[in-house]
Fold:
Amino acid sequence: MSANHRSLYEVKTLIQATKGFNLNQMAKFYDSWAPTYEQDVKMLGYNLHPLLVDCLHANFSGNREEVQVLDVACGSGSVAKLMVELGFKNFVGVDCSKGMLEQAARLGIYQDLKLALLGTDPLPAENGTFDVVILAGGLGEGFVPVSVLQELHNAAKPGGLIGLSKGAHSNSEGYTKDLEGELKRMVEEGLWSLVAAKELDRYMENPYVDTDEEEERFIRGIACLFKKSNQ
Structure:
């Protein structure tokens, strides 16, 4: 892909081409997109990572220099960069794209980076290891399966925090229903409890529409923070 700056139309066209991709196809797409990913998503006004990090920042009371953070679907490292600014220092990143992990490695802020296609490969993290587990923006059709929520929970220490964020994409209504059902089950079974939730009306431009109508032009986003049971 060209390293030149794309127009908003070109970025939307690029994303539209992934419709219907399976997990392996999506991983290969991100490999090729990695060099221009960050500048391209800026064209869409992408705000989901700051939304989740702000939610964590407002509800975290531990020693940020000592806690261990697992950054799942870490991409090029956008979430970790924001967290470093808030005092967090210890990161392990996991992503399905080798190209994105190469971009993340250039930041020099991860202690370890691991390649895994979640839903096919197990989450490469020992149970009960991390104080904070973050998954920002990877929840959606063709991305991280709902079944991975249990693995995120397992990776956290008792009393640890698990942060999740996603956009209300129109093509993932079935996925969203399954996700909400799994989150509800895990709360009802006492695996974790909801600490905070934060919504954003304009988390990014909808890449699948071309309109000036505010309601259709932008996708809403939500970030949720859960606390793992001490049991």
Q: What stands out?
A: The chain has nine helices and seven strands. Residues 39 and 222 are 23 Å apart (CA to CA). The mean pLDDT is 89. The longest strand covers residues 192-205.
